[in-house]
Backbone:
């Protein structure tokens, strides 16, 4: 089967992201014996309303991120120049709005009165339930089999599509777990990785029957860093908020292995390379 190019895009900042950031600042202030701001305290308290976090909207800052990212990608004619043929996004509204704003693509839903959005050169736009971010408990050891199953389902789905260049708008924890990275993608970041079906990707009950498969249904003897062998090399960062805004303060990624991504001081980093 032909190799595919997959672009992975994390959604813009959500209200949950905003509350978590406030909670981290609150905790850091307490740990350093500083008085936390009342704003951070009130914002962080919103994390107690767990049901509201399930499908929380994009924050005000997230709207600005989408506008900046969309303007830059449109200027670079990213969708057409990259040859993207298929766009897949999570059903959650933060991913849907990011896909619409950055890629001009979003699945139509009955009853919402909004038509499907799709650029001319994109063949299809789909919404995948397996990309949905469920509950935070899924990411704790011992409770993550459901996540592993959805990842295996998504990897198998990729191999079944006829398109060879696919953009996926989803969630940072899903991508982190799928690619076995020690960092999360930043909001609105665009990463590129090669995908191949040279090795079988099993899902569901079949995954557990694979020779050498671990509890996640992955055969670590065939993979890199415990990832499925369908992922070739490491993901390469193509765009970040630094590109969209030009502000150094907007890009603060975790320390990353330089073999996995370019440093932003490299002049080729700001150009879209295909």
Residues:
């Amino acid at each position: 089967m032909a190799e595919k190019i997959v672009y992975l895009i994390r959604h813009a900042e959500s209200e949950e992201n905003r509350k978590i950031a406030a909670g981290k600042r609150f905790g850091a202030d307490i740990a350093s014996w500083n008085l936390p701001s009342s704003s951070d305290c009130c914002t962080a308290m919103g994390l107690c309303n767990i049901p509201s976090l399930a499908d929380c909207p994009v924050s005000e800052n997230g709207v600005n991120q989408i506008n900046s990212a969309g303007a830059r990608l449109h200027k670079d004619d990213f969708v057409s120049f990259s040859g993207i043929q298929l766009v897949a996004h999570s059903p959650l509204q933060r991913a849907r709005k990011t896909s619409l704003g950055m890629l001009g693509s979003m699945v139509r839903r009955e009853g919402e009165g909004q038509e499907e959005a799709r650029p001319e050169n994109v063949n299809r736009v789909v919404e995948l339930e397996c990309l949905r971010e469920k509950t935070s408990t899924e990411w704790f050891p011992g409770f993550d089999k459901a996540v592993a199953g959805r990842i295996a389902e998504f990897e198998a789905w990729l191999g079944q599509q006829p398109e060879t260049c696919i953009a996926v708008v989803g969630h940072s924890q899903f991508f982190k777990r799928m690619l076995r990275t020690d960092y999360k993608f930043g909001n609105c970041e665009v990463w590129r990785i090669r995908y191949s079906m040279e090795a079988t990707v099993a899902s569901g009950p079949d995954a557990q029957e694979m020779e050498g498969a671990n509890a996640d249904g992955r055969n670590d003897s065939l993979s890199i860093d415990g990832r499925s062998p369908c992922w070739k090399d490491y993901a390469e960062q193509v765009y970040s908020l630094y590109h969209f805004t030009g502000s150094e303060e907007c890009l603060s990624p975790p320390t990353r292995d330089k073999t996995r991504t370019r440093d932003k001081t490299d002049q080729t980093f700001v150009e879209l390379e295909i």
